[in-house]
Hints:
Number of strands of chain A: 18
Number of domains of chain A: 3
Distance between the termini of chain A: 57 Å
Oligomer: homodimer
Number of helices of chain A: 17
CATH topology of the largest domain in chain A: Aldehyde Dehydrogenase, Chain A, domain 1
Amino acid sequence: MGGMESKVKAALWALQGGTSVVIANGTHPKVSGHVITDIVEGKKVGTFFSEVKPAGPTVEQQGEMARSGGRTLATLEPEQRAEIIHHLADLLTDQRDEILSANKKDLEEAEGRLAAPLLKRLSLSTSKLNSLAIGLRQIAASSQDSVGRVLRRTRIAKNLELEQVTVPIGVLLVIFESRPDCLPQVGALAIASGNGLLLKGGKEAAHSNRILHLLTQEALSIHGVKEAVQLVNTREEVEDLCRLDKMIDLIIPRGSSQLVRDIQKAAKGIPVMGHSEGICHMYVDAEASVDKASRLVRDSKCEYPAACNALETLLIHRDLLRTPLFDQIIDMLRVEQVKIHAGPKFASYLTFSPSEVKSLRTEYGDLELCIEVVDSVQEAIGHIHKYGSSHTDVIVTENEKTAEFFLQHVDSACVFWNASTRFSDGYRFGLGAEVGISTSRIHARGPVGLEGLLTTKWLLRGEDHVVSDFSEHGTLKYLHESLPVPQRNTN
Amino acid sequence: MGGMESKVKAALWALQGGTSVVIANGTHPKVSGHVITDIVEGKKVGTFFSEVKPAGPTVEQQGEMARSGGRTLATLEPEQRAEIIHHLADLLTDQRDEILSANKKDLEEAEGRLAAPLLKRLSLSTSKLNSLAIGLRQIAASSQDSVGRVLRRTRIAKNLELEQVTVPIGVLLVIFESRPDCLPQVGALAIASGNGLLLKGGKEAAHSNRILHLLTQEALSIHGVKEAVQLVNTREEVEDLCRLDKMIDLIIPRGSSQLVRDIQKAAKGIPVMGHSEGICHMYVDAEASVDKASRLVRDSKCEYPAACNALETLLIHRDLLRTPLFDQIIDMLRVEQVKIHAGPKFASYLTFSPSEVKSLRTEYGDLELCIEVVDSVQEAIGHIHKYGSSHTDVIVTENEKTAEFFLQHVDSACVFWNASTRFSDGYRFGLGAEVGISTSRIHARGPVGLEGLLTTKWLLRGEDHVVSDFSEHGTLKYLHESLPVPQRNTN
């Protein structure tokens, strides 16, 4: 109400006091939406008076560019998307000097402010760029058959045919921490799957990310879809991005499990793909083979203990205590310098006394292992359901019936028999490009390939079909005939 | 800190003032979790002092019962799950008198407090129960091949085989409004797909829901899985349930689009399957056939205007204005008494003047239709992307090239050519049991059958396979051979 002049005066007066102001029309919710909640949710409605100067497009504008760029990307031929990725791979090696000099700036600015392992992740090198380029070419190869694949065909009635085809999800927001090599890799995955992409990198890698993003856009521009991949300004808060549910269809955090947990908490109504925990179990059954068990435990725990698919809890059948099998496992763990934490039941049995576990639900991510005793496969399954994270759980046994019982009953993304937990991985599963591992139960579960970045749409081709013709007194009947699905989309 | 006595005294003193109190241990976050946030999130930790007496199990206990009951349900043979559903169908007709008398109580209590359409939805009848029983038998029939189906098999290496199989999602929370017939139907869908289920019905149907839930549990008990389906107390707030993200894997609101919107807002980190809006478009191209267009518009708009797949916006190519085709459509709409709202461009063309639209993004759900003019198929697509809800959009044309362009470019769950929007439906698509229609881009999209209640898990069967054998200097190489998938699971 009132004149605009008084509003602007009030805004200026507030600004002088250091408070930013929004002037917006809140009188017609049908036309303008719910203005106050929109402003609170960080949308750019009305006029914003602030001392801070905006630079470049707003996130909303970037989201729209990613959406429309992604839509164009999705309608390209698969070969054209592959070409873009190959071109990006070429640029990574051709423009090596520029990339490394930008990266050097980041490293210099980070010097003394970041811990050594973080600096290492931040740093790029010729060999890193080379293997990145090789990875990109693999993504290009596995992208050929992803978008536009026909999954199902049904004849609904004469000349009325239904088709379910794969399509990109839409706009992805990928949030990554210090590693700048994430950018071209994630960019290639989005391009391969025809998705628009918003990238949010860490401040510490700003120079590297800027050049890598420019190269990605250069590659995209060979088919006129430069804007499909957008780099979000480092000023934008992750929490604010996670609220843009009209704009973003899927969030993929790439980084520590803490990052994943933070994003899962911040995401309001936008699905998040990722695993926040990998508490993997191995149950060594009474009928396990001595040599296999020891070999499997060592590979699962010691090969790369920081990985999410590394073993964290070893469940041993009670009958095995004080047998050569058990001694062999304990000796191996000593040799490998694995610190043992005893579960309550295992602790009460021991004469020597390793530290008792603080919690049976711990992801050590290091050369540490919890050992607990169980009386049966049922008890092992109960323990896994109670303390596990539904990531990857393994049974070691020679008894096929026990193994199948375990495989059927354990409710985890990956359940293995006589195999290392470490096979839980997109590349090892043969899924081609690895997008991540998901412990969500919705959409993709377990190791996720390019398929995880796709959804489907239904196409129905008719002549002039109306549903009233199929009513009780209508002239037509539903056929619902399954039709053969082409093995490859030749579109 | 301090003695327990003083804490209890303080609690009693607060109680006398009408304030409930929680006494909980917050000193060891590692052991007890983050107590204050747990309490704020409505979890039952510590000791709760309140004047309100609790009745029956807590929601948390019900969630656990649904989880473990569901897990047992999932390990039954498909025939056993079908038997349970058949038994429930029998009970619905055998126990008709009891059900109808409970329903009568609800109706009597609602009399005068609910509007006539709501009373009608609340009311059950012999014929409603009979058709419900028929629906249940259809669900039983379509459930045979759902859980445990092998989707993919890969030979990773010699004697190391990977399998991806369908499994239930876990625990579903279904929230429904006045219609009590929802309960057995949703119960049957959960049983068919092996999921645990929490049901939250409306207060107004409490008596009916109670007896229908008892019958569902009676049916479940023939295979000892009575607890897989739980009816949540009407006292529990929907908002509180939507916070139980550790307990619930998927929320399915069944009711008005307002309910779906409310739930989508309330759900914290739990995915919601449903469509909040169905703003369906039909684009009549310059090369459309006169008779087809009129027939398709009538069926899409007039056959059942309250449905989410009914037509809301008709886009007409400019060349058609003042042609017989256009006149025929307008005449038909007059005969059918459809109120026309003109889009801005259409309004400026008209000499007569129907009401101009308030918003181009409106779901009328009634005999009302927005008409707008576009200059090309590209403009039609742009309009649909800007104002649509990605539900169902149709092109009417005789030009196959234009049609295919539309099918490829429109980014909606369902895109049709020369067919009524009303085909967008699980039954009409031949998906068997209808779970709902989803406008989400993650997991299920469009009409959803039983598959929408399933996820997958990965089973890996090895001998003693470890990943270090596959390293650069290892003895094994990945084969990643695709293996044939059995056509039906005979498990």
